[in-house]
Amino acid sequence: MVKYDINKILDFNFQMHLYSNKELCDISFFMFQYANLHNQNNIDDQYLKNLIEKLCLNYNIIPYHNWTHAFQLMHMYFCTYFNSQLKNFLEPFEFLVGLISGLAHDINHKGFNNIYKIKRKSENSLRYAEQGVLENMHISQFFRIIFNNPELDISQKITEPVFFFSNYILLQYIKKEQTKQIQKINIFQYYKY
């Protein structure tokens, strides 16, 4: 794997659009290594590489809700954590969950919003009673990936699977409130160390 400059990656203005999906997978893994959280939680390097690749492959090629966007969200979370006081408010495991959730948050997005899905009476709209149609679909897709692939079943790896899943669902809710999140991030940036 190519070595990446952590100082460039820790910059909020990191130019992720200049990299291929494969390179963004490698950079994602590099970020996990830098954070040094996965090994502390019984998640080995190969498992993490496989999970990142599988998440990437489950994104569609669309203008916005694609792998680059997933990386972008994870990157913002990563930068905020290391460039602010956020690390004083999160347990390391919560940060790990947030990184994985960032990469998984828009899995299998087809480029249409909830209103479109509801008006078209899509299968997911009916399944989720018109509530958080896409958010619920993304969570369901993530669970399918990890539970239908025994080598990716994270519940076998970590000691706190219930906590992991509840945090994933919580982060999906937070995702819907991205404007509020950006305001919170600005607050954490203000209180730099």
Care to describe what's here?
- It comes from Ichthyophthirius multifiliis (White spot disease agent).
- This protein has a domain of 128 residues: Orthogonal Bundle (Catalytic domain of cyclic nucleotide phosphodiesterase 4b2b).
- The radius of gyration is 16 Å and the shape is globular.
- It contains 10 helices and no strands.
- It starts with 5 loop residues before the first helix and ends with a helix.
Q: How is this structure best summarized?
A:
This is PDEase domain-containing protein. InterPro entries: PDEase, PDEase_catalytic_dom, PDEase_catalytic_dom_sf, PDEase_CS. This protein is mostly helical.
List descriptors.
3',5'-cyclic-nucleotide phosphodiesterase activity, single chain, PDEase domain-containing protein, mainly alpha, metal-binding, Catalytic domain of cyclic nucleotide phosphodiesterase 4b2b, 61% helix, 193 residues, PDEase_catalytic_dom, globular
